[in-house]
Amino acid sequence: MTREEFQNDIRAGIPDRLPAAKPYDKQINHAPKRKDILSDEEKTLALKNALRYFPVRHHAVLAKEFAEELRRYGRIYMYRLRPDYEMHARPIGEYPARCRQAAAVMLMIQNNLDPRVAQHPHELITYGGNGAVFQNWAQYRLAMQYLSEMTENQTLVMYSGHPLGLFPSHPDAPRVVVTNGMVIPNYSKPDDWERLNALGVSQYGQMTAGSYMYIGPQGIVHGTTITVMNAARKRFTAGRTDTRGMLFVSSGLGGMSGAQPKAGNISGVVSVVAEINPKAAQKRHEQGWVDELHEALDELIPRIRQAVKAKEVVSMAYVGNVVDLWERLAAEEIPVDLGSDQTSLHNPWAGGYYPVGLSYEASNKMMAEEPGRFRECVQESLRRQVDAINKLTDRGMYFFDYGNAFLLEASRAGAAVTGEGGRFRYPSYVQDIMGPMFFDYGFGPFRWVCTSGKPEDLETTDSLAAEVLDEIRKTAPDDIRGQLDDNIHWIREAGRNRLVVGSQARILYADCEGRVKIAEAFNRAIAEGRITAPVVLGRDHHDVSGTDSPYRETSNIYDGSCLTADMAVQNVIGDAFRGATWVSIHNGGGVGWGEVINGGFGMVIDGSEDAGRRIREMLLWDVNNGIARRSWARNEGAVEAIRREMDRTPGLRVTLPVFADEKLVREALNEQGGASDKL
């Protein structure tokens, strides 16, 4: 398809003449069939909802086709409308657009749906089993058409994948405002998502899928590397201060979990990651993200022993069920240093977790046709998995929950994961690592995309970021110097680790000072022509301020407010009027529908003074909103971080907590007969 044909296709939106029906491509990794949850009356409604995108003259053909999709897949994806052009991020100048900001959004959307990046590209799902950019291909086509028409005096409003329309606004307003899954709280159970998504009225945007900010597994490689490195440091002793020879075991090689083997290599450990889906494992092997594939435990176990003994830096994938792997490791008493799990247990009944004893194909069939039995199998599998993990931790393994609802769902299954006082036996990685070491100080996943598509532009940004961090480190206080060191090492090694999949993107962890100064350096380089096109700034929602999630991002908030979502909502509102190009807020993401509220942003910088103003105003809020909240929760690192920011930033005044004496509180309650020794 020529560039002109591509642009005409974008401008056309939903075509006047229906394209030919497309065959189901069995070579592509597809979403599993969703369970049959709608009543006959609701199925009628689902069809009417889908047909409202099309002129009446097409309804006779499409009604039958959509009814068949609903029957076969549990959803209406409108496969016929899938474009004929290749789906990938193009240089920004190739998009038909009336403003550069809209073209940048189009680039990011196409990157999210690139088959090299997306988990189930034909179902518009980027990662996590259900993290969707749109619900169907009509929504994609209509959104791209609106973006091609948008001016700087309009804003596109997106309701769970549906383009509500272009509305008059002004240049300082966001160009796009996105909401995903924002349902009434009493309708936020997993089956509510199944029903509302099947009706075509709501979707699960995960975090960066539905906010157009996913950059492939690189985004999670960095966070996983930081986590594994610091988890390994917890295993260091007087005689062991090197990660080499350590064994790290986990599961999942999908859109997010696929980062684990690459992170293991960067961290210098032996990693073994189980993956039940052969296509997902093969994809990561072909991309160079995992070194070896093993299908038999009798072959894998001796290989593990060999690699550990030789202190190799190597990553292995076990193409099979992780429970079989854990049980074999426990039975053979193989010492495991680090353990975790990255199956999508926020989505346990619809493809996020596959029970032991069933093949991948048999599991997909059972989850659609016998959901009750499938649920029982999942819960039995979780009990077995935890039993094996417990045996290995009793022998010294450090196990951490990776914020995927593993401990939560395991506890609901009756697995032995609770300890004294009903608390989880194992920490969340946020509780032990990310929260107190990074989020409390404002460090989080700052990312950017070079819209030129040129690797040399990305190399320039890498160098600029490293220079900024080096300069900050010279006067940094001791409590953040280690974080800076890890990220300087990361950004200097990023290019040689071949982390780019899809767009020319990068990520590192930086605090407010670092993010602002790096962004300003990029903006100057664009103005000077050293970077040849605008840069999109963003972040993962998994950050200091963006997400309220009691089992992950805010699991180290201990003042009782971990169940509130004021921070995430305030974050998005504040970003919107301080200069973000687009903002998004989602229900769900990482730990499950109904378990988290999370928000994100994208910002296009173009070398202008206006972009510089937006950088300074928006990034300051985007980070310090969360630090201020964590400070008020009495997190000591956050108190120190917000004090430093108040010294640095005129006009910033934050309410600081007064720390009560615990002995005094206990005595006061004891006098009233209301305190226990476990307070």
TrEMBL record:
Residues 438-643 form the Urocanase C-terminal domain. Its main location: cytoplasm. Binds 1 NAD(+) per subunit. InterPro entries: Urocanase, Urocanase-like, Urocanase_C, Urocanase_central_sf, Urocanase_CS, Urocanase_N, Urocanase_Rossmann-like, Urocanase_sf. The keyword Metal-binding does not apply. It holds the Pfam family Urocanase. Its cofactor is NAD(+). Keywords: Cytoplasm, Histidine metabolism, Lyase, NAD. Gene3D superfamilies: Urocanase like domains (3.40.50.10730), Urocanase superfamily (3.40.1770.10). It catalyses: 4-imidazolone-5-propanoate = trans-urocanate + H2O. GO terms for biological process: L-histidine catabolic process to glutamate and formamide; L-histidine catabolic process to glutamate and formate. Residues 87-213 form the Urocanase N-terminal domain. NAD(+) binds at G128, G129, Q206, E275, Y402, G590. GO terms for molecular function: urocanate hydratase activity. Residues 216-433 form the Urocanase Rossmann-like domain. GO terms for cellular component: cytoplasm. Pathway: Amino-acid degradation; L-histidine degradation into L-glutamate; N-formimidoyl-L-glutamate from L-histidine: step 2/3. Its EC number is 4.2.1.49. It is found in: Cytoplasm. Belongs to the urocanase family. PANTHER family: UROCANATE HYDRATASE. Catalyzes the conversion of urocanate to 4-imidazolone-5-propionate. This is Urocanate hydratase. The lineage of its organism: Bacteria, Pseudomonadati, Bacteroidota, Bacteroidia, Bacteroidales. The gene is hutU.
